[in-house]
């Protein structure tokens, strides 16, 4: 991929979009939220299709295409955490049908006569309450523990479909020595790029819903989309989504190519996605008027997925500061 998808990537995007439209419609998401439906069958569909095996760096762009479509659909499974946070830390040491979560901070490793003990509490871990395995980053290296070895409690989240959990490690005995060869920094870049492209997918869904609404909603006998003020808001949303999407896929491409610009690209992608969701959230909600605030409107799911992403792995402001620091370092 240079600036556009090639024919294979276009076909892949079309295929993924068709699958998510069929297997993860808004009715399923609403059932998960309203009735607590189990998304496990959907997770098994992803596993059966081989999507959970797209964890090698070389497949970063193809994985990004899947993540964007799942962001559009407000995917209720642990796919994002498993493929972009857990998998980069374990380097293929678990089965693709096992869901995973990642803990990047808050846990210490203490060595005793029998091996290693993990202690501490990790807060608001994505899918920490429903993962099969958990990758834990410590000063000693990366440990992998089974979920039944820890105590996890789900916490509230702005997006009711997301699972965030506090995980307590109460002298958890590690079953193996830590992996000291894991590139934790690169794993963070993968996590950032994955979250950024997921947010882009949610923002694109908001834009699509808003455009459909303004084309069909009439006022004074004409579609409200014909009003100049509405056109301006829609144009601003489109520009924000395209910019964030370009940066998210650029970050995925730097991961696939092991480009040294990977670190900067990941922060740029997350910053752009955060700025995008701010614009799209505000304008999308306003274009829907009072209807946008109703529980019956599916707009809410995309809005909440996009906004929730801003509060994970660093905000747009934090990543802009990192970018500025990186730029200043080049001037010295």
Automatic annotation (TrEMBL):
InterPro entries: AcylCo_DH-like_C, AcylCo_DH/oxidase_C, AcylCoA_DH/ox_N_sf, AcylCoA_DH/oxidase_NM_dom_sf. It holds the Pfam family Acyl-CoA_dh_1. Its cofactor is FAD. Keywords: FAD, Flavoprotein, Oxidoreductase. Residues 194-326 form the Acyl-CoA dehydrogenase/oxidase C-terminal domain. Belongs to the acyl-CoA dehydrogenase family. PANTHER family: ACYL-COA DEHYDROGENASE, ACYL-COA DEHYDROGENASE FADE28. This is Acyl-CoA dehydrogenase. It comes from Rhodococcus rhodochrous J3.
């Amino acid at each position: 991929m240079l600036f556009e998808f090639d024919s294979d990537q276009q076909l892949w995007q079309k295929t993924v979009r068709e699958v998510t439209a069929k297997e993860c419609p808004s009715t399923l998401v609403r059932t998960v939220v309203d009735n607590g439906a189990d998304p496990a069958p959907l997770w098994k569909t992803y596993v059966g299709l081989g999507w959970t095996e797209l964890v090698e760096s070389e497949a970063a762009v193809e994985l990004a295409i899947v993540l964007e479509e799942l962001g559009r659909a407000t995917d209720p499974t642990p796919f994002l955490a498993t493929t972009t946070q857990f998998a980069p830390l374990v380097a293929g040491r678990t089965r693709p049908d096992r869901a995973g979560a990642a803990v990047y901070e808050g846990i210490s490793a203490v060595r005793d006569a029998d091996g290693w003990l993990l202690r501490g509490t990790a807060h608001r871990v994505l899918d920490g309450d429903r993962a099969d395995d958990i990758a834990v980053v410590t000063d000693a290296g990366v440990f992998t523990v089974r979920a039944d070895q820890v105590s996890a409690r789900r916490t509230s989240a702005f997006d009711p479909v997301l699972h965030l959990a506090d995980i307590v490690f109460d002298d958890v005995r590690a079953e193996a020595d830590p992996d000291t060869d894991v590139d934790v920094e690169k794993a963070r870049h993968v996590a950032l790029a994955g979250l950024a492209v997921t947010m882009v997918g949610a923002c694109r869904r908001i834009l699509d819903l808003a455009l459909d609404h303004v084309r069909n909603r009439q006022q004074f006998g004409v579609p409200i989309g014909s009003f100049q003020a509405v056109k301006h808001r829609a144009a601003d949303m489109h520009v924000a989504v395209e910019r964030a999407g370009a940066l998210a896929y650029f970050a995925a491409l730097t991961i696939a190519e092991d480009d040294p610009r990977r670190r900067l690209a990941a922060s740029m992608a997350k910053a752009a996605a955060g700025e995008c969701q701010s614009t799209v959230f505000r304008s999308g909600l306003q274009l829907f008027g009072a209807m946008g605030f109703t529980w019956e409107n599916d707009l809410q799911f995309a809005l909440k997925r996009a906004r929730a992403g801003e509060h994970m792995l660093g905000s747009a402001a934090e990543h802009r500061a990192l970018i500025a620091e990186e730029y200043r370092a080049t001037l010295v």
